[in-house]
Write a structure and sequence with these properties.
single chain; alpha+beta; Immunoglobulin-like; four-stranded antiparallel sheet; about 35% helix; about 35% strand; WD40 repeat-like protein; C2_domain_sf
Length: about 200
């Protein structure tokens, strides 16, 4: 039986709150036990990704958990905004246009010493895709990430973006190989060890 998948396009964030003037943002998305994130973008609170992340559909795939974070060179990244979105509701909202989701401020979030209830909005588009189209999306994402790495490495002020883009591309490639690895048990075992090391280093970074 053909398995269906979700393709979630993370388009942009509008009026993201931050303590830093030239903050670098990225978006984390979790669905059931699957986790994806965009690359890191510098911006003035209006980052535009137009990045697509993919997920397999399962019985547990009911709610997208979305986190907007500010990347930091030192210390833990800052959680800027969060939202939980029902999958079926988002599909309906995206039937004819993109969906706008308000990001709630994390507990205790202060900006200019004032407590915030929301920290901007995120624009998304969700659709169902089959396995072939999911593979095409992941290949295109890896190609775009590779091109961004070439562009960013020519600049001297983009260290955070380069790191984020490298991790983004590697995560896409790992997801693709995960599917192939299941064909042969021995290859699957060795690949699980290799990918686990990357995932650990990505988390620690």
């Amino acid at each position: 039986m053909e398995q269906n998948h979700f393709a979630l396009q993370v388009i942009r964030v509008h009026r993201a709150s931050s303590h830093t003037k030239d903050a670098a943002f990225y978006v984390e998305v979790k669905l059931a036990n699957s986790y994806r994130k965009t690359g890191i973008l510098n911006g003035n609170g209006e980052p535009i990704w137009n990045a697509t992340v993919t997920f397999s559909q399962t019985e547990a795939s009911t709610v997208f958990k979305i986190r907007l974070k500010e990347a930091r060179k030192l210390g833990r990244d800052n959680l800027i905004g969060l939202a939980e979105v029902n999958v079926d509701g988002l599909l309906v909202d995206c039937d004819e246009d993109n969906a706008r989701v308000v990001l709630s401020a994390p507990t205790g979030f202060l900006l200019n010493r004032k407590r915030q209830s929301s920290t901007g909005s995120i624009y998304l588009h969700l659709k169902n895709v089959d396995t072939l189209n999911r593979a095409k999306i992941e290949i295109e994402t890896a190609e775009k990430s590779t091109e961004r790495i070439r562009t960013l490495t020519s600049r001297t002020d983009s260290t955070m973006e380069v790191i984020g883009t490298v991790i983004e591309a590697a995560e896409v490639i790992i997801e693709m190989i995960d599917g192939v690895a299941k064909i042969h048990p021995l290859f699957n075992l060795s690949w699980q060890a290799t990918s686990a090391l990357f995932k650990l280093s990505s988390y620690l970074s």
